Amino acid sequence: MPAILLAADQTFSLNRSLSCGQVFRWNREQDGWWYGVVGERVIKIRQEGATLQYEGAPATFIKHYFSLDTDLDAITNSFDCDPVIHTAITKCRGLRLIRQPAWECLISYICATNSNIPMIRKRIANIARDFGKPLEFGGHTYFSFPDPSALAAACTSTLSDCKLGYRSPYVVDTACTIADEKGWQDTIAALPYEQARRELMKMQGVGPKAADCILLFAFQNYAAFPVDIWIRRIMQEHYIKLQSSNTALTGWEYDLIRRFARQHFGTYCGYAQEYLYAARDS
Questions:
Q1: What is the topology classification, in CATH, of domain 3-68?
Q2: What is the pLDDT of residues 204-241, one digit of tens each?
């Protein structure tokens, strides 16, 4: 079986990276193997110390997908600026942001609005099962994520069978937009953060948090600092005075938090956000 030997200074935790809530199509079996679908590849991977064993993709793909070509210690050192984030970095050592396919990430975070991780995972699995292509691997059938044209051709009622609820028309409308704009990914990638954020929020179902998640996880725009109820509580408790956390998060508060985070944590504030989020239950 192919293997990648991590360098001594190549900090990486496969388990933390795949279980922190940034991706939704990976499952860990009892024997420690992770199985996931990325594009039209089914990948099987496991980490034992400094060794990554894997199947289903070439080493170049694995290294790029898991951001193994970045200096993680330099990144975390850049925002290790206070006791709270220092504790998060220590607890979640080795967590890397995964480079997600942009189209799937876009739809995933439309499906993620006002929901929890198990339900998000179920919705995305349902979409892949009903509209994706079957992929055979290890005696099991997996499904690719459907391309924009496949979802653009779907009707809202059919998508509702995937348990999307009110998000169904958002998915169809966004799929139609993307199907008509073939270069949308390059366009977003070329824009500065604030402008890219505004462009994404023109799409149906993409609010401030979804836009920031998409920019962070699919476009490696580390200026993005997604804010949900958990991040709001952490920021209120440790960093910035806000209204009661029992009230709805306002747009004004969201902007206050993300701008504070950019100033406080710096260039890689999006990375800092994921460490704060992942460390909350550690």
A1: TATA-Binding Protein (3.30.310)
A2: 999 999 999 999 999 999 999 999 989 999 999 999 98
Which contacts (CB < 8 Å, 24+ apart) does range 184-191 have? 185/102, 185/103, 188/102, 188/215, 188/219, 189/219
Cα 136 to Cα 11, 33, 37, 41, 54: the distances in Å are 32, 17, 11, 10, 16
CA–CA distance, 26 with 24 (Å, rounded to integer): 6
Amino acid in the structure at residue 242: L
Low-confidence ranges of the chain (pLDDT < 50): none
Instruction: Kindly give, in sequence order, each residue whose CB lies less than 8 Å from that of residue 157, ignoring residues fewer than 6 positions away.
Output: 168
With both helix axes pointing from N to C terminus, report the angle between 208-219 and 251-265 in degrees, rounded to the nearest 10.
Answer: 30
Taking the model in full, what pTM does it have? 0.94
Question: Please, what CATH class does the domain formed by 102-219 belong to?
Answer: mainly alpha
Token representation of residue 26: 């990976």
Q: How far apart are the first and last CA of the chain?
A: 33
Read out DSSP for 14-51? Answer: HHHHHHSSS-SSEEE-TTS-EEEEETTEEEEEEEETTE
